[in-house]
Amino acid sequence: MNDPHLWWYISRASAMIAWALMTASVLWGILLSTRVMRRVDNPAWLQDLHGYLGGSSLVMVGLHMVSLMIDSWLSFTPSEVFVPFATAFKPLPVALGILAFYLLVAVQGSSLMLKRLPRKFWKGLHYASYAALLLISFHAGFTGTDVGTLWYKIVSIALISVAAIAVILRIVAGKRGGTPRRTDAAPSAAPLQSTLRTMVVASATAVADGVVGIRLELPDWGVLPIWQPGSHVTLHLPNGLQNQYSLCGDPANRHHYDIAVLRTGRSAGGSAWIHENLVPGMSLSVSGPMNHFELEPAADYLFIAGGIGITPIKAMIESLPAGRAWRLIYAGRSRQTMAFVAELEASHPEQVIVHASDENLGGLDLDSVLGGPALTAAAQVYCCGPESLMDAVAARVSADRMHLERFIPLERAARPATPIQVTCRKSRVEFTVTAEENLLDSLEAHGVPILGSCRKGICGTCEVRVVEGIPEHLDSILDDTEKDALGVMYPCVSRAQTPALVLNI
Q: pTM value?
């Protein structure tokens, strides 16, 4: 600390490290969006690393700016460091660096508030990373005291080349990628017809007794929207029914969707129609994908699947990198009725535990499973299957570790219905929903652009952002606390605790 030039050295080193980290962050973000690393891709892990790189670059920029003020030789004032064009020393290049700093702050701040911002706004702001990287490159090229030295030229050329290649990769992938996946927190103003796509049944084969595996493709074999494990699509069947099915294929394959449909007598008839009528070459209307069962970052996972509940779990397992710790407990009536059981056992013999009722007459002992080595202290639990199984698991696992996807809505007690004064901010429509009316039906009747599908509070298609008022959540999609934190509601079944609601639609 006695070296009079110590802070000068720190300012140089921190600036170069920040430049390298920012380049790596942008490159990693492009790898995420283009799925170039799909063979080792765990979306949550990649997103975390992308965030750490961006955050670290901002920390290094901050250290660089502080060291400029502390160093006795450079002796920058706070205004010269934080206000563009306040310094007489190379005012334009310095101003570019200051603007890059504020862009980085905006990008990182928006990432911290991701769940509270409309996804479209966040995504648009995130593109400022490219501008920040460009500004940093110009700033470094015209203000650095080492400009002209061989090592500086080598590092600069390497970083600029990597950034240029990454941007070219993103442009090329964007042109090939087709329509991007919609991830807005609230539905767009587009009518339902514009979100539907006609898809062709490429194949329909039995994957277990009573379960048919279906592959859907675009008629021109075009590129489909990106999806993450846990996503589902909605099939709009010719008999008027709309059924949701989890995607169980490889998220990296953008040319087809794979689903598996169990024939059940308890449904409204959608599964029976599919089993009796669906044949290769048939066209279907499909909407989605949507995801309310996302795979979150974790060091370890315990997956519990019952019957056809294996479909989203299978996609999650296949998205994990080879070194990630996980276990699967897969329960069903018999191996003959359990889809993908042979494939999963063959691929992961040490991690998959199959519990077939006709082989284990004592039934699945959840207390032993959840009290044994399969559930580590770090494990997040993902469960999908019959309601009885999910309720039993949820009763034994703390809410902060429990992740469920329901096929059947929960029975939830509702307060006596009262009229609601509804204001739709974007549509500039105001109306009253009577106690006897359904909120989603009223929105549709007043021409508000909103999508509805299951109308039972389980698919999430009708999600809308709440600006003012307190919703009365009666759906079965997310925890009420999570919906409140996100500021969303599902009007197909939910109403309001307050006399008025203002919706961002």
A: 0.60
